[in-house]
# Entry
Amino acid sequence: MKYAMIHDMEKCIGCQGCTIACRSENAIPDGYFRLKVKVDGPKGEFPNLSFNYVRHSCEMCEHTPCVTVCPTHASFMDENGIVDINADVCVGCLYCVVACPYNARYVNPLTNVPDKCNFCKHTHLKQYGEPACVAVCPTDALIFGDLDDPLSPIFSYLANKPFVTNKPHLGTKPKLFVVPNKKGGVVL
Ligand code: SF4
Ligand code: SF4
Ligand code: SF4
# Structure
């Protein structure tokens, strides 16, 4: 499988339900995050204001600078395309934190090991088949699935909606796709 996610900015209302679910599901320490939804705006003149809600999390790159620089293979991509961290063989050099062009990793102050979104691989995905953020989103702005499966919802979604990826010029090929908000544009 090749797991991927879409953030549809047309549907996102910035409620932060996904960020709260992520923190709870993955026991993220206070002051740190795997997932943020940033508010871009307001834009325009009152009362015709618009907002843009921008997801910030690991982009699940196909070409992974974080994995390339890791000297111990603690950073790796699994058989389902999820970029993950094996804390048991991490030596805490933080090369991966520096190499990530999306600033997606933080260092867990309790373990001194880098951490980031892994699609809830060991938690909600394992138990319920989808990440916690996807499960709680009230507007279905997050779509999760398998890019290798033509029957997966993510497959037909990408076939029918215009989408962009973050910093495509870097050649990292993110598997986090973004459907732009027509009112507010897209800021990544
Ligand atoms: S966004 Fe950063 S941490 Fe995530 S796969 Fe890409 S380089 Fe690695
Ligand atoms: S901090 Fe750990 S996971 Fe990151 S590059 Fe160093 S050994 Fe690899
Ligand atoms: S839960 Fe859904 S609607 Fe709310 S901020 Fe997250 S993606 Fe947007």
In short: Residues 3-179 form a domain with the Alpha-Beta Plaits fold (CATH 3.30.70.20). Residues 58-61, 64-66, 83, 100, 102, 104-105, 116, 172 surround iron/sulfur cluster (ligand 1) (CB under 6 Å). The chain has a mean pLDDT of 95. DSSP finds six helices and nine strands in the chain.
